[in-house]
Design a protein that fits this description.
Helices cover 37% and strands 13% of the residues. The protein has 220 residues and is α+β, with helices and mostly antiparallel strands. It has one domain (3-215): Class II aldolase/adducin N-terminal domain (L-fuculose-1-phosphate Aldolase), CATH 3.40.225. Strands 3-2-1-4-7-6-5 form a 7-stranded mixed sheet, sandwiched between helices. The termini are close together.
Amino acid sequence: MTRDATVRKAARALGRHGLAHAYGHCSSRIDDNAFLVSPAKPPGLTTEDDTCPRVPIHDPLPDGILGEVRIHQHIYRTRPDIKGVVRFMSPNMMALAALGRVPRPRHGFGAYFAPAPGLWDDPQLVRDDEKARGVVAAMGHNRAVLMRGNGAVVAGDSLEKAVGLAFYLEDACRVELEALKCGLSDSAPILSEAEASRRATDAGLIFERMWDYLTAGDPG
């Protein structure tokens, strides 16, 4: 599958599974200088005829590229290990982020973000480079950063993995909200550093199976 076909397929998966609605985007690194980003439209409405624009990593955003795609730029600039980025707005994650909270590693999916995702404590849209640098700094070396009242960004060593991590983060936020609802957020167990490290595995086709699930039935 070509890289642009993978980007289109990832965008549709985000829309199909409620990880992105009218807003959101995903990208795949080409090399040290550029990446492909999903079309500037609701991700779930991406078609096989859509072009995935090529975006420079080190130069200003081209005309017609969504402003928050600069977050992707700054991640690719500072983290050469990252090959795929997803910006999304799923329901449980949005609710938890609006509370100014991040999920703790309470179950298997949460282990991938141990000890905790970053938090960018600013509800404004990220449409300038200063804010984008702040988001990426808050993310640090984690796989995810939540933005208060404004969704989240996840990054992986492939776009397929980043899409899987978006699903994992949404579920980690669901579990965290349940702990808050039950009044057990402070007393319920969390995974130790060693437990989280062992559980956050790529073995056993973990991400490949999640990709197959999220893209099942896709026309591409």
